Structures are given as C-alpha cells and as structure tokens.
Amino acid sequence: MSDRIEDIAVAMVQPGQGILAADESTGTIKKRLESIHVPSTELNRRDYREMLFRTTDAMKDTISGVILFEETLYQKAADGTPLVDIIRAAGAIPGIKVDKGAKPLPMHEGEKITEGLDSLAERLSDYHDAGARFAKWRGVISISRDLPTPSAVRANATALARYAALCQQAGIVPIVEPEVLMDGAPGDHSIDRCAEVTEFVLNTVFDELAEARVKLEAMVLKPNMVIDGKNARKASVDEVAEKTVNVLKATVPNAVPGIAFLSGGQSDEEATAHLSAMNALGDLPWSLTFSYGRALQAAALQAWQGKRENVAAGQRAFAHRAKMNGLASQGAWAKDFEQAA
Ligand code: 13P
After folding, report:
1. Which of 100, 106, 111, 171 is nearest to 137 (CA)?
2. 0.85 exceeded by the pTM?
3. Distance between CA 234 and CA 231 in Å, rounded?
4. Which of 27, 149, 271, 299 has the maximum number of C-beta atoms within 10 A of its C-beta?
C-alpha cells in the first residue's frame, strides 16, 4: 500500500468497496449495546467489533477501510492480535475518528460546533504511528425552517478545513463529514429544504477547504443524502438519488476522488437502494460509495445479541449488508437480492 495520501484516498473509494464506520463514541456504543441488553464494557465493545473485523470475506471483498474510535485503535483481539492487524490482514485500511464530539454553539440555540482541534497535530502523529491512514471529523448541521444560521455553518466548515489540513500534513487522508441531520428535531423538513441547506453547507465547506489549502485529490467527502426529515418521509428512491446527485454536481469539485455517504438513520435497505440508484444514474465525476455505521451494523448487532454462539450469525448478517452495499456502489443492487438471502 502506497503512503501517498492521494493513493490512499483513491483506495478508500475503489469500485465495489466502501467504508465501515465502527467509530461510535463511548456514549453511542453504549446505546447500541444496551439496545440488545449487553452492558458496554471494554471487553464487550471489543468482542462486538472483533466479530465484525473477522468477517474476513466481506472485509476483503467490500470493505476498503474501517473508521475506529481511539479505544479500538489500541485494542487487542481475544487472542492478543491487535485489531488493527486483523483489519490490515483483510486488506482494509484502518482509520480513526479524531473529533471530540459536537457541543452546543454559544449564542446559537439548537446548533452545535464540533470540538477537537487543540493538540490535534500531536494526536494525528500518534495515530499515524498506530497505523491509522485516514481520519474522520463530523460537523453537525441542524435543519428546520430557521436553521441553520450561516454563522454556525461557517464555524463548522472552518473547523473541518483546519482538521483536514492538519491530517494531510500528517500523511493522513481526511474524511470531511458535514452532516445535515435527517433525524434531528423537528425532522419535518422537506427534501427540497434539505437540498437547499445541503448545497449551502457544501459550498461553504469547499470554500473553507480552499482557504485552508487542502488538497482535494487527497480527501474523501462524507455527506448526508438529500432526503426528507425523518418525520416527513415521502420522496421516492429515484427522487432522493436524483436530488442528491444534482446537489453534489453543483458543489463538489471533480478533483475529489470519492464521496462516501453516511446512513444517518435511514433503514438498511433504504440506504442501499439510494446508493445504488445514484450509481445507476451514471456519468459521475467521482466515485460514490458508503461509509455507513448503523446501516451496515444494525442487523449484525441484532443477530449477535452479545452471545458467543451467535458470532457466526452476526457475521452472516454483516457480510450480507456489506455485499448489498458493495453492489450498490456499482449501481448493481436489486431488491430481489435481499429476499434471496
Ligand atoms: P451512520 O451511517 O450510522 O449515520 O454513521 C456514520 C457516521 O460515521 C456518522 O458520523
């Protein structure tokens, strides 16, 4: 594997493959594990993630990279093998979530700013030593009739850009994730309002990336899809695909090698169907793939239930979603493939 960040970015979005987001923070993984009545201990978190990373065929065939939380980057499997080595042995690239979470933005009711820039250069150097070759930073944008404010969008875009420049300087590919929330309150916005806000957010982000001198060839964009709020869902798969691609074509420079979507609360199958429909449109200047957390893991988590005897079932569930999304990244998924499984 080349050390050039341009090559790493291209490998992350290679056709047929996508990214597994397994970087839930301690608070988020606790919620996920508690949903299956498993306490969030360090060992349970390890066992769950080890199950995913040891799904060897799926990892080899369809997962180009895995985003880790810092704890996992330094964790060892039950047999003592570093989890990072298991990921690398399956041909996937280890990555690391480096932001410190979204906190309330002062004087901006209902809006957030992502923290974590202090000492980031030092942390990136440590993460590179530990094997991470890409990173993730998520900015969160609230959407309603009155939000976001331009100043909240600008503040988040500036932080994303400084993060991205620091990553590239450290030999790490930045995943730039400005997420316009689908499932935040009130969640009753239309797909057209989402398109308008997403376009504004992406224009602001690329403006700040240019100011910060970030190399577009050596980054991956991780946006939301253009979709109705979770309490207003009605757009068809084709409408989501078309409106998302239109906004991306209007805002994302061709020099960016790839775009890897977040799933953001869509159901597993919706996230797959939308991605496949976009790729089926064809004539795209960048590759379009997945960087899903929930939409890749929900079925595996349910099948596992925290029990050793369910590891194979959990791995089958994960392998299936990975395969479906691998097909979607080539516009080749069909609903029939779900039933067949
Ligand atoms: P979801 O796919 O569950 O939205 O998570 C992806 C992610 O990494 C959000 O930061």
Report:
1. 100
2. yes
3. 9
4. 271
Secondary structure class of 31 (helix, strand, coil) = helix
Residue with tokens 């998520």: 138
Place of tokens 């932001």: 99
Between CA 176 and CA 179 the distance in angstroms is 10
User: Domain boundaries in the chain?
Assistant: 5-340
Which parts of the chain have pLDDT scores under 70? 340-341
Report which secondary-structure segment, H or E, holds 61. helix 56-62
Q: Rounded to the nearest 5°, which phi and psi values hold at 204?
A: -65, -40
Topology of 5-340 in CATH?
TIM Barrel (3.20.20)
Contacts of 306 (CB under 8 A, 6+ apart): 33, 36, 37, 38, 44, 47, 48
Active site residue 177: yes
Place of tokens 């309490």: 231
Q: Residue 184: its pLDDT value, please? A: 80
Helix (H) or strand (E) holding 328: helix 311-328
User: For the segment 241-268, what is each residue's pLDDT rounded down to a tens digit?
Assistant: 999 999 999 999 999 999 999 999 999 9
The beta-carbon contacts of 235-244 under 8 Å, at least 24 apart in sequence, are 235/191, 237/270, 237/273, 237/274, 237/277, 238/277, 239/191, 240/191, 240/274, 240/277, 241/274, 241/277, 241/278, 241/280, 241/281, 242/281, 243/191, 243/192, 243/195, 244/274, 244/278
**Sign of the alpha-carbon torsion through 35, 94, 122, 72:** positive
| Catalytic residue of the set 24, 177, 179, 208 | 177
CA of 97 to the centre of ligand 1 (A): 11
To the nearest 10 degrees (0 to 180), the angle between helices 191-211 and 237-251 is: 30
For residue 263, the ligand 1 atom closest to its alpha carbon is 2
pLDDT of residue 244: 98
- Residue of the CA atom closest to atom 4 of ligand 1: 264
Both tokens assigned to 105: 């933005």
